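Posting for a labmate who doesn't have an account.
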Amino acid sequence: QVQLVESGGGSVQAGGSLRLSCAASGYTSGSIYVSACLAWFRQAPGKEREGVALIESDGRTSIADSVKGRFTISKDNAKKTLFLQMNSLNAEDTAMYYCAAHYLRCYSGYEKRIDSQYFPYWGRGTQVTVST
């Protein structure tokens, strides 16, 4: 069973930066993590879950318009760790951030929409709070 554990959240002032990490375990071999579709989502109180960023097995990424130019997704296959670098944070970025994973490559059309329904594995989340 794949398990995901997020870390790196916290409180930061507007304009600041944070780097989230998501450590994966339970993949049956390193090669399966290499080929997995991985993503970050966030959910603010009273709002729907939003896809933030996705990374395909070959390194191609999809970034939501709301964070484009500020957030970057990356991964370290050797460490089975996913990252989300968040810069120029603002109050609208305050949310619980979740990483999500599949054991297969990403679905067709991921460039247009980061779909939470695709991912069977989820972490418990890490809170990001941005103060003005």
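Reply:
Got it, the structure tokens are right above this. The helical segments are 30-34.
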